[in-house]
Amino acid sequence: MPDNLQSLVDALPRLGEGVVVTLQLTLGGAALAFVLAVALGLAARARSLWLRTPTRVVVEFFRGTSLVVQLFWLFYVLPVFGFRLESMAVGIVALGLNYGAYGSEVVRGSLNAVPVGQWEATKALSLGPVHRVRRVILPQAWALMIPLLTNLLIQLLKGSALATYILLHDVNYEIGQLRIATRDTFFSYAVGLLVYFALAYVLTLGMNALEVRAKRRVGAGPTLREVVRLAPVPTSVGAGAA
Amino acid sequence: MTGGLWSWEQAAAALPPILEGFRVTLVATVVGMVIAAVLGLVIALVRRSAGRWLTVPVGLFVELVRSTPLLVQLVFVYLMLPSVPALVIGCTVLGVHYATYLSEVYRAGIEAVPRGQWEAATALDLPRARVWRAVVLPQAVRNTLPGLGNYAISMFKETPYLFSISVVEMFTAAQQYGAATFDYTEALTMVGLIFLAVSYPTSLLVRRMENRLA
């Protein structure tokens, strides 16, 4: 066991590099996924069939064909068609496309969940289409969609472990290295799973903070400062950090 | 790769091993889902009714399994138990991983059973086991069916992770074919399309069930 700890200490810098790679994939993939999710989610609600049909096809395609297949397709097959991407780009694009498609359903659902009266009110005030969505509808939908986006973000983090198989040195890869160094499968994998657990926990905390802020902005729920401080919050509205 | 990017001969040659793998994919999905459905219910009931000494460790286990990659869990268990067949490990790990998701689906389903049902059961002085079996669970399971369906589709699409423990399901079959012929195009594309061809109609069915039960 002391040997294991020594190996772990020796492996810490590399494990740190693995965390950086995993975070690059996760945050890069999440950024791409978010942009796609908003674009596809808005397009899925368009009145024109010319916009809605291709959107549906794209969303169902990327939801339906499995992340693993998409990732390896981009890695092995895309170069045949003359596009060769770096491993990191392959990872970010695959994660972004797959979870962007899932996220678009969340965005669409949250936009639908904003009460009709809000849409009507924007019309009564004769706000322009951009203004209407940006200032009234999106802030409310945003508060609704964050918990669901949090789930997707954790899924995306977990999916990023595939990167090992497209030759990236992420956390998953470094676990394997630690196992070789310690010759102790249980120890190295327990450490690795805890690293992933900690990453997921930190991401969840960050998203919960975002949720509290978003709810506060639309006038529902306490401020972040009220949630974080130790004294009980004197409102009956549930804290968003649950 | 003689002429053109897509060769139908290659596609035809890759199809038999892929279909062979598809059987394994189906077996893994069905067995994994049965394990997940049963274990998920057990977890949900334990977290609801047991004492602290049981709910706290079970809750921790659920959180740990839910927020770490399936891929790492598969390889971990595979390396720890070298004598167990890979497919058995694959089904079990898939089942346990999804059980942690399904326990939340069950929890929501149980909570959605109206309070009046519990009160009526108490008023009738039914024994506790009977309340669960005859009153609460039948209604709760109805609430959870669409959730179970969606997770079954999602598990189906995650079976390719079994490549990491060398179970030759559909995706692994395609990859092996690609590695042997240096031509991944047809095999990988077909596997993706087969996943789509199965999961999309199934998701439409689940959506219909959702609307009918709502």
Provide an overview of this structure.
The complex is a heterodimer of chains A (242) and B (214). Chain A is mainly α and 242 residues long. In chain A, helix 1 (2-43) runs antiparallel to helix 7, helix 4 crosses helix 6 and helix 7 (171-182) packs antiparallel against helix 8 (185-217). Chain A has helices at residues 2-43, 49-64, 67-77, 87-113, 116-124, 129-159, 171-182, 185-217, 224-228. Chain A has one domain: MetI-like fold (Orthogonal Bundle), CATH 1.10.3720. Chain A is flat, with a radius of gyration of 21 Å. Chain B is an all-alpha fold and 214 residues long. Chain B has a single domain (13-213), classed as MetI-like (MetI-like fold, Orthogonal Bundle). Chain B contains 8 helices and no strands. Chain B has helices spanning 8-49, 52-66, 70-80, 86-111, 115-123, 128-158, 170-181, 185-213. In chain B, helix 1 packs antiparallel against helix 6 (128-158) and helix 3 packs across helix 4 (86-111). The N and C termini of chain B lie far apart (52 Å). The A-B interface holds A 60-61, 63-70, 72-73, 76-77, 80-81, 154, 157-162, 165, 172, 175, 179, 185-186, 189, 192-193, 196-197, 200-201, 204 and B 1, 5, 63-64, 66-73, 75-76, 79-80, 157-158, 160-161, 163-164, 171, 175, 178, 184-185, 188-189, 191-193, 195-196, 199-200, 203.
